[in-house]
User: Which sequence fits this backbone?
């Protein structure tokens, strides 16, 4: 018996609402213990990402080997990967340590438009990481970018999206519904022999910073606790919905109150 341990490999958010910060908050809230390895340092706030500085592949490798030579992990959440060299380190580490329950949040671009994965690294992520991950969690934009398509997120399009992602080596897919045209926020888990819809009402709130990070790290935490993939997605989706509903209780003091912004969830 031990505390479920989740390793998050992601970027650093000084604003505290995304990346390893929200991953750590989520994992601990759900009863796990978070280990983290930083892939990049960002400069960002409620207005978006203004700068990104990637750590060296050697430093990431040292972070990971130092942790994994000492501690066993039950699940892994992967977020921002930045470039080809970082991806290659992560893929090698997954294979070397035979890491299980790997959840890949296919982060490509920030909501403010800043690239978080180099364009020449997308194919490397697909080729080297998709087959190693138990689950990938693309949103609609990421799905369209990966498949070079223009889907709107309608239910009838799901089989074609899934077919394309399976052809790229994905083992299981969670198509996130936050950016689709559907009335509710519908996430669809597609396994090779099964498809499950998870629906919640949309929550009108400015507190949407880090939703994908929270969801993927929550799924990884439930997997670390021994839940099935379907149950992990269901419980993580419900956790995100509850946090979005309660997010307005977080009230930060901003310099310019009239500006539109994306705020942290908790």
Assistant:
């Amino acid at each position: 018996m031990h505390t479920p341990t989740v390793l998050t490999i992601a970027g650093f958010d000084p604003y505290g609402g995304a990346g390893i910060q929200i991953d750590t908050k989520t994992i601990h809230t759900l009863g796990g213990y978070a280990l983290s390895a930083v892939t990049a340092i960002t400069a960002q706030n409620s207005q978006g990402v203004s700068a990104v500085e990637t750590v060296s592949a050697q430093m990431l490798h040292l972070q990971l080997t130092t942790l994994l030579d000492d501690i066993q992990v039950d699940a892994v959440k992967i977020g921002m990967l930045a470039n080809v060299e970082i991806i290659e380190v992560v893929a090698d580490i997954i294979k070397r340590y035979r890491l299980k329950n790997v959840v890949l949040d296919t982060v490509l671009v920030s909501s403010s438009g800043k690239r978080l994965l180099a364009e020449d690294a997308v194919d490397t992520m697909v080729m080297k990481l998709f087959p190693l991950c138990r689950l990938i969690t693309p949103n609609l934009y990421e799905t369209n970018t990966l498949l070079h398509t223009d889907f709107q997120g309608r239910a009838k399009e799901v089989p074609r999206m899934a077919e394309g992602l399976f052809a790229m080596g994905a083992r299981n897919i969670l198509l996130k519904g936050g950016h689709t045209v559907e009335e509710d926020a519908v996430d669809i888990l597609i396994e090779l022999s099964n498809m499950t819809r998870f629906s919640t009402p949309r929550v009108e709130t400015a507190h949407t910073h880090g939703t994908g990070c929270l969801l993927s790290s929550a799924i990884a935490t439930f997997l670390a606790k021994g839940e099935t993939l379907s149950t992990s997605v269901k419980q993580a989706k419900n956790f995100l919905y509850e946090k979005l509903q309660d997010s307005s209780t977080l009230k930060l003091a901003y310099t310019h109150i009239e500006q539109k912004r994306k705020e942290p969830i908790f």
